[in-house]
Amino acid sequence: MSKRQRTLTEPFKIKMVEPLKITTEEYRIKRLAEAHNNPFLLRSNDVFIDLLTDSGTSAMSEHQWSAMMQGDESYAGATSWERLEKEVKDLTGMPYIMPTHQGRAAERILYGILGGKDKIFISNTHFDTTRANIEFTGAQAFDCLPEDAKDPEKELPFKGNLDLAETEKLIIKYGKENIGAVILTVTNNSAGGQPVSMQNAKDTRALCDKYGILFVLDACRIAENSYFIKHRESNFENKNYREIAQEMLMLGDAIIMSAKKDALVNMGGFLTLKDKKLAEQCTNLLIISEGFATYGGLSGRDMEAIAVGLREVFDGDYLNYRIKSTEYLGKHLNAIGVPTVKPFGGHAIYVDAKAFYSHIPQEQFPGQALVCDLYIKGGIRCCEIGSVMFGKHDENNHLIPAAFELVRLAIPRRVYTQSHIDYVIDIFEELTEEKEKSSGIKITYEPPFLRHFTAHFERL
Ligand code: F0G
Questions:
Q1: Would you say residue 12 lies in a domain?
Q2: Ligand 1 site-directed mutation target among 54, 128, 189, 267, most atoms within 8 Å of CB
Q3: CA 384 / ligand 1 centre spacing (Å)
């Protein structure tokens, strides 16, 4: 018999608990029907394990909570802002820092200025709010992922990379003056939480320099990305995680960060820029829509918590536990025959719903079916990243499906213990046994943008 491995233990203990309500399957069937089969419309109180997102769901540390007590709530020039600004400057090397209430506010400001009709944006994969903020200006957003990264089974170290050859082709096709920006999202959330290599970031910088194009880094999971670089890319084994992040961030012309991920807070974000003129334009929009330049929609206490979180997240024990615990879920799901994107991402495991529910055609949204089944069977909430989120319609109103039909099990930072994760694996095991019973789904209502948030569905 093989030797049992040591348990992966959380590098923290619990000081305050948040009770979870245990519900029955019968109860959950009713709640899901009321929510039109869309878990975004459920009440969180009716959810047992919430894997909807890793965004804004972190448990803060005692250091963050105590820093919050020192929040300076002055309208202008708050000491909390000075603290955050210093921390972000040190991390990014950028001269102009703007606080925003979350990542998409920074996106709206930056892409609102860079975008517009006839503009083109190119990214390894645009996250949904990134794409929406770009398309909302009338611009077009192209995803450029290397061909072999599109195979969910293929084990490659940096499947989040930008395809530089394809990017260059697009630049030439549309003309460099029409490219709003090239955006590198690290890690690449919509493509399975896969990392981007330092080499790819450097090559992206060089390509942008060649054509005089602005290079934006979406850095909301930069610490997790640094973990993968240290352990997968040569010449980084002796650098610490923060140094690796600094090296990558300094390559950009602009950085957008949703602090709700790797800054370990519940709300916040920022935009940083190298260019003074662009920073002035952004500051004007920031003041009109978010708040004065030294708080941008954040309380002083929020800024304190971000400043502390941005340090804590690079702690080696934390990052090791974080990535290994995600891997634990992935490995055990694979072991019971649940297909996932490989290698495992940093913040989430992406189940290949098309392969898991191979009897449900893409037009009937196998991912959404699995999301609903996970809630009914186990009170687990998660989100579809497939044709509900990214599918389009052709002129005959037929579905143009997304490249993948994934279900994302996003893991909140420092919130669930291994027994919660084991429970998720148990529920998958039960679903595996009765796969054939599951049926497809149709959309009965959808809004024009970001339909997955508010759409209504019916079981076929
Ligand atoms: N960029 C990426 C790569 C993201 O994952 C997100 C949010 C944003 C930008 C927007 O940031 O939510 O602070 O406005 N992702 C969340 C998720 C919502 O569940 O993956 P935000």
A1: no
A2: 189
A3: 15
